[in-house]
């Protein structure tokens, strides 16, 4: 599989939903496979909250491949021997596209809290502009999970003719208070951490030791990505062997797991990006700007595939099913399908249980 990382600079303003502008801005992206002559084999993959443009393949020295490597590659469900796949790091993130720690023009100071609030619709708009720059006006498919699924839904509504197929997984049409509440924990923990310094932190300060606010908040988030059943399976009631049951700070394996993943995460993810992206997720609502959800969905022309996971406790199956119900009731039955995957892993099943939906995805892409 041919893997390339690229960056594009845009000097025209990006007009944001908030009324503010981002100017200039950069987008970093990866591509896999080769674009054919008539540009008819392009698939856009959209990433989730902490994901990046590195969706597949491996660079020299990498311990792990990209986050959807099991799905994207030669002969895999998103077959890079046939398709040219693009994955773009969203604005607001911390992997190279313009985000809160980028430098403002012309002062060269970092934006920090001066960075504008961005929305999932803004992330999509920037990617549409990148596609135009690449000469791509028609996609074979758009596919993403979680916040990636939200982007796929926005693409379907805002750019109805751009893609033949749209696959939105483990997402919702509007973020519910339940999910906002988990994000509140991480946001509060970040801003109240003394190292945050009202956004004026030095990233070097937590490169080695981690950023406690982000670590603790991410633990709450991570709980919402699993389920009671997957935790039973992963850990049971196992205790860390070297810890005594009657030591106050002795740990269950599940506690060790949350510490490992929370503190590890806080060494490499930027706290301001986390604040801005969770804000974008919280205010996600595909009906904003329309009279109703029905009106927003009426714009859809693409073949829309909605996929939920049975025990997704963050974005629950009923939320995606509602999109199908509305579309069915207003004469769009032929455009929409809904598939509920029998899984008890939890929300992150879209990253882990690839064998449960690979064939489905391959079938859609073969149509
Ligand atoms: C599009 C995107 O969103 S990409 C971003 C994806 N990444 C994330 O969401 C970050 C959070 N990570 C995760 O949620 C998970 O690691 C996933 C979903 C990516 C993968 O899940 P799984 O393959 O089931 O891995 P699992 O959750 O068992 O293990 C994760 C880590 O915890 C470690 N771990 C497992 N059990 C324990 C334990 N008892 N104590 C300490 N650490 C543990 C694993 O060794 C692994 O470490 P590593 O990341 O250094 O390899
Ligand atoms: N665990 C994934 C999905 C969260 O919605 C992430 O961190 O991006």
What this model shows, in words?
The protein is an alpha/beta fold and 367 residues long. The protein has 2 domains: 3-175 and 285-366, 3-Layer(aba) Sandwich (Rossmann fold), CATH 3.40.50.1820; 179-280, Rna Polymerase Sigma Factor, Chain: A, CATH 1.10.1740. The chain contains 11 helices and 12 strands. Strands 1-4-8-5-9-10-11-12 form an 8-stranded mixed beta sheet, sandwiched between helices. Helix 1 (120-133) packs across helix 2, helix 3 (177-192) runs antiparallel to helix 4 (212-225) and helix 3 packs antiparallel against helix 7 (271-282). It is globular, with a radius of gyration of 20 Å. The mean pLDDT is 97. The structure holds acetyl coenzyme *A and L-homoserine (HSE).
How many domains in all? 2
What's the N-to-C terminus distance? Answer: 23 Å
Main structural class: alpha/beta
Main β-sheet: number of strands, strand sense, barrel status?
8 strands, mixed
- CATH H-level name of the largest domain... which superfamily? Alpha/Beta hydrolase fold, catalytic domain
In total, how many beta strands?
A: 12
In the CATH hierarchy, the architecture of the largest domain is 3-Layer(aba) Sandwich
- Mean pLDDT, to the nearest integer, reads 97
Return residue spans where pLDDT drops below 50 for at least 5 consecutive residues.
none
Please trace the helix and strand order, writing H or E for each element.
EEEEEEEEHEHEHHHHHHEHEHH
Subunit structure: Homodimer.
Function: Transfers an acetyl group from acetyl-CoA to L-homoserine, forming acetyl-L-homoserine.
Pfam families: Abhydrolase_1 (PF00561)
Enzyme class: transferase
């Amino acid at each position: 599989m041919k893997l390339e990382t690229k960056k594009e600079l845009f000097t025209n303003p990006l007009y944001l939903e908030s009324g503010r502008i981002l100017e200039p801005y950069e987008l970093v992206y990866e591509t896999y496979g080769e674009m054919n002559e008539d540009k008819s084999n392009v698939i856009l993959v959209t990433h989730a909250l902490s994901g990046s443009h590195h969706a597949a393949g491996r660079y020299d020295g990498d311990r792990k491949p990209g986050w959807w490597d099991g799905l994207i590659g030669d002969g895999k469900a998103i077959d890079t021997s046939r398709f040219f796949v693009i994955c773009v790091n969203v604005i607001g993130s911390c992997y190279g596209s313009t985000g809160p720690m980028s430098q403002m023009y012309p002062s060269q100071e970092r934006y920090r809290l001066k960075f504008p609030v961005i929305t999932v619709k803004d992330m999509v708009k920037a990617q549409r502009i990148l596609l135009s720059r690449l000469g791509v006006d028609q996609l074979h498919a758009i596919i993403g999970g979680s916040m990636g699924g939200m982007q796929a839904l926005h693409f379907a509504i805002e750019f109805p003719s751009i893609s033949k197929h749209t696959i939105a997984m483990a997402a919702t049409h509007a973020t519910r208070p339940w999910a906002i509440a988990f994000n509140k924990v991480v946001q509060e923990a970040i801003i109240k951490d003394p190292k945050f310094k009202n956004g004026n932190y030095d990233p070097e300060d937590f490169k080695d030791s981690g950023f406690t606010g982000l670590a603790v908040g991410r633990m709450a988030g991570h709980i919402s990505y699993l389920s009671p059943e997957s935790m039973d399976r992963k850990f049971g009631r196992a205790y860390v062997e070297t810890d005594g049951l009657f030591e106050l700070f002795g740990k269950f394996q599940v506690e060790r797991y949350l510490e490992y993943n929370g503190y590890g995460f806080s060494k490499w993810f930027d706290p301001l990006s986390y604040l801005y992206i969770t804000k974008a997720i919280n205010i996600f609502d595909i009906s904003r700007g329309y009279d109703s959800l029905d009106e927003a969905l009426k714009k859809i022309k693409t073949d829309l595939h909605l996929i939920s996971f049975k025990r997704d406790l963050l974005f629950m199956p009923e939320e995606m099913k509602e999109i199908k119900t509305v579309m069915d009731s207003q004469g769009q039955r032929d455009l929409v399908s809904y598939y509920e995957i029998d899984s008890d892993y939890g929300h992150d099943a879209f990253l882990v249980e690839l064998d449960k939906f690979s064939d489905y995805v391959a079938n859609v892409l073969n149509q």
